[in-house]
Amino acid sequence: MNTQFLCIIGLGHMGSGIADIIIEKGIWPLKNLILCDLLPQQLKHFENRGPLTLTTKTQAAVQKSQIVLLSIRPQEMKPVLTGMQDIFRNDALLVSVAAGITVRQIGDWSRCQKIIRAMPNLPARLGYGMTGWTATPQVTKMQRCHFQRIVGQLGVDMYFAEENFLNVITALSGSGPMYFAYITSELAKIGVKMGLTLQEAQTITKQTLLGASMMLTYHQLDPGEFVGQVASRGGTTEQALIIFEKQGLGRIIENAVQSAYHHAISTLPSSPD
Ligand SMILES: NC(=O)c1ccc[n+]([C@@H]2O[C@H](COP(=O)([O-])OP(=O)(O)OC[C@H]3O[C@@H](n4cnc5c(N)ncnc54)[C@H](OP(=O)(O)O)[C@@H]3O)[C@@H](O)[C@H]2O)c1
Asked: 255, exposed or middle or buried, with CB in 10 Å at 0-12, 13-18, 19+?
């Protein structure tokens, strides 16, 4: 029986989504689940959800927990972790989802050695997320199992032995929902220009995005081949593809993703301050 305490610190967009999934899927015994945020109104959403603990007292939550999942903003990581150095249990597993904060920084600031750094994306809230993660060698098999039980319910997860791949994940899937939302929004605007109402245009473009994504995923199609199948020779879709290629849409996308990647890397510290 799992008697370990799991606490989630920070119940903003990401933390509350992860907490919702844990509760809905029954991943963790509710009496051993502690949800903590400084703002009492962030806790309201979790009232009457069973025998879990809701608190604004971060230190008490951390002191009691074998697993501490930190979902606070990156700039808050250093003061929060250094302030709790003496509070963490010796055997505590720290899980951080903070963008750009390295395992080394987390270790230096917290003095904990068992650390998992994960990079989910927002669709994790629905169980359709993509999460890349890495772990220090000190994380035990059992702790990895506990983490994988949680992350597995957020969507697809991928382990990387090399931490730098988390910056690639940040640029591809962390920022990725924006890329698809942007294109969907642009398509809808064009639909409006062509006479549709905004609601009609958005319904059409969102359903098209969902349908294409479902086909690619569930039929395990190669996206490049799928482009070729839909853009059949001499057809209407091919006309659009010709413009994409002539005007270099691929290059624009690459520049955008590279720029996000370099921004993720640039937040890496040169020294463990
Ligand atoms: N949103 C995404 O798409 C996404 C994707 C991948 C990773 N992440 C990472 O997830 C983390 C959280 O992002 P978010 O978008 O959920 O941010 P957010 O909405 O700002 O949520 C952070 C929450 O943490 C609370 N908090 C701060 N310090 C605390 C403390 N000492 N104890 C308890 N609660 C505390 C904040 O309260 P106050 O407002 O009072 O400070 C806020 O409610 C970030 O590090 C981000 O890099 C986010």
From this structure: exposed
| Contact predicate 81/56, CB 8 Å | no
Ligand 1 atom at shortest distance from the alpha carbon of 98: 45
On the question of pLDDT at 185 being above 90, the answer is: yes
Phi/psi for 5 (5° steps) reads: -95, 135
Looking at the domain covering 6-164, what would its CATH class be? alpha beta
- Shared fold status for 6-164 and 176-266: no
Give the domain ranges of the chain. 6-164, 176-266
Q: What is the pTM of this model?
A: 0.90
Helix (DSSP H) and strand (DSSP E) numbers for the chain = 12, 8
pLDDT by residue (tens digit) across 135-180?
Answer: 999 999 999 999 999 999 999 999 999 999 999 999 999 999 999 9
More confident: 175 or 269: 175
- Is residue 56 predicted with pLDDT exceeding 80? yes
**Range 56-74 average pLDDT:** 96
Pocket around ligand 1 at a 6 A CB cut-off:
9-15, 36-39, 42, 58, 71-74, 76, 80, 97-99, 119-122, 174
CATH number of 176-266: 1.10.3730.10
Residue having the nearest C-alpha atom to atom 5 of ligand 1: 121
Q: Which atom of ligand 1 is nearest to the CA of 100?
A: 47
Instruction: Please state the rounded mean pLDDT for residues 96-105.
Output: 93
**Distance, CA of 168 to CA of 172 (rounded, Å):** 6
Instruction: For residue 189, report the phi and psi dihedrals to the nearest 5 degrees.
Output: -60, -40
Answer whether 126's CB lies under 8 Å from 105's CB.
Answer: no
pLDDT at res. 271: 39
Complete DSSP assignment for 122-172: GGGGGT-EEEEEEE-TTS-HHHHHHHHHHHGGGEEEEE-SSTTHHHHHIII
